[in-house]
Amino acid sequence: MPDHSPLVQSLRTAVAGAPDDVPLRLHLAELLIAGGHHDEAVAEAAVALQHAPGDPQARELMARAMGVPQQAPEMSAQAPEVPPQAPEGPPSPAGFNWKAAEDQVGDVVPPRFVETPKAAEAPQTADGADDPGDASAWEVEAPHGVRLADVGGMQDVKDRLEAAFLAPLRNPELRKLYGKSLRGGLLLYGPPGCGKTFIARAVAGELGANFLSISINDVLDMWMGNSERNMHEVFETARRQAPCVLFLDELDALGAKRSRTAHSGMRNTVNQLLTELDGIDAGANEGVFVLAATNVPWDVDNALRRPGRLDRTILVLPPDAPAREAILRYHLRDRPVANIDLRKLTKATDGLSGADLAHLCEAAAERALLDSARTGTVRMIGMQDLTEAAATISPSSDPWFASARNVAMFANEGGMYDDLVTYLKKKRKL
Ligand SMILES: Nc1ncnc2c1ncn2[C@@H]1O[C@H](COP(=O)(O)OP(=O)(O)OP(=O)(O)O)[C@@H](O)[C@H]1O
Ligand SMILES: [Mg+2]
């Protein structure tokens, strides 16, 4: 969070109370620029421009907010030494040197709209993480605000999470009634960039639990032979921090590596993981909720999927329309946008992953920025920027579905991939 002066904070409150007051908002933008909070200033200037299109002061502030200060270290490092091309725009708004800006933009446009931390990647809270008293190298995030409600759309994933995982945990009476125990974890699988990690974090938020996310690749320490110990340490850390959602990302790394290096001792690491998971029975894992994720479930060791282990699977597909709308809204929320028809955009982006959509918004912002620098007239990110950017992005999950199709056709043992088959059929990909 940027450290704002009390004045900025009071102004923010005042602006929230009087959203139509343009001079007030511009005053806030001015202070934000002075404080170096350029992206926030852009957002305020954008709202001011929506209320007062063409207002010279608003435009001037927008220009300054978008203009990179000459001394900004990241820009000066990149500023080309070549002589500037003559800018052919209208006269520059006061205080902003378009010529220099255009130079700096050059061929490579740095992401001007620096991403504020995504909800899914909220900065780690100090508690628990980096605790000097905790010798382990694994960082635990304190409970945070991301809830399932923050996951846009994907209602069936949420329903299944609720039924397969959350309801029994929340409701011990129900658990007893149906004879369900706390045993076992959940495996999320699906194409890359479609929200597995985000959902795992939301589950932690839902349970009010700490969140320990580790990549199996980090646990694997092939040369030192430390993997088993690392695996044990991870679970021990989670147990110390209970209630804790332990998220094992890239679970397939265990299986895939085993087949590449037969003698690597991977079996021992898998066995260690099994032992740790089975600790759930013995009560050692009370309050430790294991979620795992993989893009290649067919590489996951079958032993891990037996009852009481990662015995439930949920397919996380590319975001549906409501999810895409939420993701687009999220990534555009602080950018200077005008007249965006989200519904239309949502339709035009079917098949794109969450990561693709983030990329799309960035590409559109870059277009608008480049255009502004070129013409010397600041303009908002418009629908055209987004649709044109969308036309150049192909769904990054396509290659995944190509492999998944084979598995669904030829290796759907025990109905493990029934959801996938249903989806592929619906999409006429099978
Ligand atoms: N339903 C959703 N609602 C809001 N944001 C979403 C949703 N699905 C995905 N996202 C966003 O999309 C981005 C990618 O999601 P995430 O990193 O969780 O994907 P992943 O499946 O874990 O990808 P990978 O396989 O590459 O690890 C994140 O920024 C996340 O916030
Ligand atoms: Mg992930």
Describe it for me?
Among the domains are: 6-105, Alpha Horseshoe (Serine Threonine Protein Phosphatase 5, Tetratricopeptide repeat); 121-315, P-loop containing nucleotide triphosphate hydrolases (Rossmann fold, 3-Layer(aba) Sandwich), CATH 3.40.50.300. The protein is globular, with a radius of gyration of 25 Å. It has helices spanning 6-17, 22-34, 38-51, 56-66, 73-78, 98-105, 155-170, 172-177, 196-207, 216-219, 227-240, 252-260, 266-278, 321-332, 342-348, 354-375, 383-392, 398-410, 418-426; strands spanning 140-141, 186-189, 210-215, 244-249, 288-294, 312-315. It has a 6-stranded mixed beta sheet, sandwiched between helices. It has 430 residues and is of the alpha/beta class. Helices cover 49% and strands 7% of the residues. Mean pLDDT is 79; it is low at 68-96 and 104-135. Bound molecules: adenosine-5'-triphosphate and magnesium ion (MG). The site of magnesium ion has 4 residues, from α9.
Supply the CATH class of the domain at 121-315. Alpha Beta
In CATH terms, the superfamily of the domain at 121-315 is P-loop containing nucleotide triphosphate hydrolases
Radius of gyration using CA atoms only: 25 Å
Which structural class fits the helix and strand makeup? alpha/beta
CATH architecture assignment of the domain at 121-315: 3-Layer(aba) Sandwich
Structure in a nutshell:
The protein has helices at 6-17, 22-34, 38-51, 56-66, 73-78, 98-105, 155-170, 172-177, 196-207, 216-219, 227-240, 252-260, 266-278, 321-332, 342-348, 354-375, 383-392, 398-410, 418-426; strands at residues 140-141, 186-189, 210-215, 244-249, 288-294, 312-315. By secondary structure, the chain is an alpha/beta fold. Among the domains are: 6-105, Serine Threonine Protein Phosphatase 5, Tetratricopeptide repeat; 121-315, Rossmann fold (3-Layer(aba) Sandwich).
